[in-house]
What we know:
Helix content of chain A is 50%, strand content 9%. Chain A is an alpha/beta fold. In chain A, β1, α3 and β2 (66-68) form a beta-alpha-beta unit. Chain A is globular. The termini of chain A are far apart. By secondary structure, chain B is an all-alpha fold. Chain B folds into 2 domains: 6-173, no CATH class; 190-488, no CATH class. A two-stranded antiparallel sheet of chain B has the order 1-2. In chain B, β1 and β2 (316-317) form a beta hairpin. In chain B, α6 (152-158) crosses α7, α11 (286-307) runs antiparallel to α12 and α13 packs antiparallel against α14. The two termini of chain B are 17 Å apart. Chain A binds chain B through residues 1, 3-5, 8, 11, 14-15, 18-19, 22, 117-118, 121-122, 145, 149, 152-153, 155-156, 185-186, and chain B through 6, 17, 20, 186, 188, 191-192, 195, 222, 225, 464, 467-468, 471-472, 475-478, 480-481.
Amino acid sequence: MKTLVLKFSLFIMICITLITGLLYVSNILIDNNKSRILSINQDTYLVFAGNSTVECSVDDRLINHSINIAQAGEAYLYSYAKIKALLEENPQIKNVFISYSYADLLLEKEMTWLLDDYFMVEKVRNYHYLLDRQERAFLVKSNPAAYFNGVLKSVIVNFEIAARSFSKKGASNSIPSFGGYKRLDRDKLSEDPGPETGKDENVLQSKTQIKYLRLISQLCGQHSVRLVLLNPPKHQSYNDNVNPGIRQLWLDVRNSLPSDSLLDLSGFLLPDSCFGDLSHLNYKGAMVFSHHLNEILFSNPGGNFNEIN
Amino acid sequence: MLFNSIEFAFFLLIVFLIYWQLKSSGRIQNLLLLAASYVFYGWWDWRFLILLASISTFNYLIGIKIETGRGDWHKKFYLIVGLVINLGVLGFFKYFNFFINGFIDLVALCGYQIQGVAIKVVLPLGISFYTFLSISYILDIYKDQISAERDYPDLLLALSFFPIILAGPIQRPSSLLPQIKSARKFEYTHAVDGMRQILWGLFVKIVIADNISPFVDQVFSNYPTLNGSTLFVGALFYTIQIYADFSGYSHIAIGTASLLGFRLMQNFKTPYYARDIVDFWKRWHISLTTWFRDYLFLPVSFSISWRIKTDKVLLIRTDLFIYIIASLLTWFLTGLWHGANYTFLIWGLLHGLMLILYRIQAKPRKRILKKLKITNDNIWLLITEGLLTFFFIVITWVIFRSESVHASFAYIQRMLSSSLFTSPGDLPLKEIVFAMLFLLAEFVKRHKSHLLQFNASDGLLIRWGIYVCLVVVILFFGGSARQFIYFQF
C-alpha cells in the first residue's frame, strides 16, 4: 500500500506542477498582451455593459461609435472589472451605459449571478485576468470550489485570448470572450413571469451588487466618463407587475448616484413579436431599439453625440 | 455527495487510509465501511437514513424468517410479506404521485373532479437500487441459493455499500456478502486498476457527459423551433451523454470498490457497438438486465411453461408465446423501474417488442442469408445491422429523455421531417470532437473492461503521460458539475 500511496503522491505532485506551470504561462501571456487585447477602435467611445437585458437589446453595429460588452448573468462585480480594464486602455471612451433593470439589485441575483457554481465558474473562467486582489478574495471566500474550478478553466480561455490577440492587427472592437450583442431568436413571452419576489417588505437587496454599481460610478468619475444607467425595454405586462418594493429600491439606489444619468427606456413601446421574453428583446426588438437609441444619441443636426443628462 | 465532487475525493481518501490500517480485523473494516456508507448516504439527506436502516433491518429479519420457516407454505408467506413490503415502499416513494395523478385523470374522464390531493412525495436517492438488492436477497434465500445472514452489520453493509448504493451496479448480496465476510488483502494491481477506473469514469462523466449536457438540454427544451438535423444531433448527443454519464458512474463505483478490495461486476461493455438488440442488452446496464432476467423473465417463463401443455397457443408456437408474454412483462416493468412516467413505459415496451421481433425474424433471416450466400460475420452485414440497432436505440432514447409522450413523438416527427436534410444550426465543436474521440477510443479498446487497462508492455511514461493528460483535460475542459442521470431512477 505504501508504494501506491507514494506513487499517487508523486502523480499528484506532477499534476500540480504541470497545472501551476500552465496557469503561470497563460497569465504571463495575457499580461504581456493586455493592451493589445483590450484596445478598441479610436472612434469607439460608447460602451454598453451589464447583463442579458443589454446584451440582447443593444446591437452595437447599429449604434455609431459603440461597443457592447454585456453578457448574460453578469454581476456588477465583473462589469466593474471589465469597464476598469477598458477605461485604462482606451482613454477615448466618453460614456458607459450599464444595465439597470429593476431586478438587478436583488439578493436573488447575487446568489445566482455571483455565487452560484455555474455562473462563478463561467465568469471567473472568462474574466480572471481582469480581477483585482479584492474581487478575487471575495470570490474565493464566497465559493472556493467554484472559484478554483473557474481559475483552472481560465487557462484554456487565456491561451485562446492570447492566440487571437496575436492575429489581431491593431485595435478592433472584437475582444475575445468579452461578451457582446447576442441575437435572440426566440419568442417565449409566456415563459418569463417577471420579477416576482414576494411582498414589499420581503424585497431583499444585494449589498454586493449595489456596492459594485457604486464602484463603477466612482470609476467612471475618476476617468471623467459619464455613466448612464440604462433600463432597456420591457414588456408592458412585466412593467405592470414590478413589485413596488423592488421599484422603490431601484429608485433609491438611482437617487444615491446623482452624478450619473438614468436612461429609463423600459416603457419603450414594442409589439409582442419584438420580445424574446418579458424582459428581453429578441433580434427584431433589438433592431428597432438600437435604431431608436442611435437616434437619441446622435439626433442633433451635426450628427454629433448628445450627452445624456 | 457526488462521485465527481471534492468532498467525495477527501471522503474516499480518508476511508481508504483508515480502512487499510485496520486490515488485521475484517470485522472492524466492515463496521468502518458501514459507517462510511451511512455517512455517504446521509450526506444527501440524513432523514432517509432511517428508511434505509428500516428496510435493511426488515430484510434481515424476514430473511431469517424465510430460512427458518416451517414448511414451504410458511417460507412462501414470509417471502410474499417481504416482497410486498419492499415493493410497497418502492411503490409509495416512486410511484405514488404517478398513480394518484393517473387515478385523478381517470376519474376526470368519467366527469368527476377530485381536488385536494397534492402530496409531493420526495424520491429517496438510490431507492430502486437498494430495493432490488433487498428483493434479490430474500428471493435467493427462498430458493436456497444463499443462507440468511445472521450478522446484522454485514447485511446492513451489503444493502448500503456506498460505491453502489446510489446507482449500482446492482451487486447482489449473494456475491457481495461472501466478499464482506472474507478477509480482504490489499492487492496493488487491483487497487491500481481501481484508480484507473475512477480516473476514466471521471473523465467520461466530467468531460464527455457534462459538456454535452447543456446542448442536449437546450435542444430538448426548444425542439419545436429547431430543424430536423439539429434535433438529430441532439438525439445523438443524448445517446452519448446517457452512456457517458452512467458508464462513468459505474466505472467510479467499480474502481472505488476495487480500492477497498471488492470486485464488482462489469456494468457496460461498449453497448453502442452491439450488432443487434439482444447484443445491446448484453452490454448495457448488465447488472439490471441480468437481475430482471433471473428474478422475473426466467421465473415467469418457467411458470407459464408448466401451465401450458399444448404445442400452440392462439396459433403461436408455445415457446414463442411464452417468450412474448415474459418479454412484454419484463420490459414493461423495466420501463416502470426507470421512473413514473409513460415515456419510460413506452421506452421499455419498444425494447421488449424489438426483442420479440428479433426472435421472430431469427430463422427467416438465417434462411435468407443462406440463400444469398452471405455469412453471418460478413462485415457489411455487421455494419448494417449495427447501424440499424443504433438508430433504434437513438430513437428510443428520445422517448426516454422527453418530458412527455406527446413531446417525444413531436420531437421524432420533427426530426424525421424533410428538415433532417438541412444544415444544422450552430453546433458545439469542442463537444463533437470529444464525443467522437470517446467513441473511437471505445472502439479501439472494446475488448477491455475499461479504457485504461494497459498491457504489461506499455511503458511507464506512456501510462503516466495518459493519466496526466486525462487529469489536465478533466480540470481544464470539464463541464459544470451535474448530478448523475441515473440518480433520478
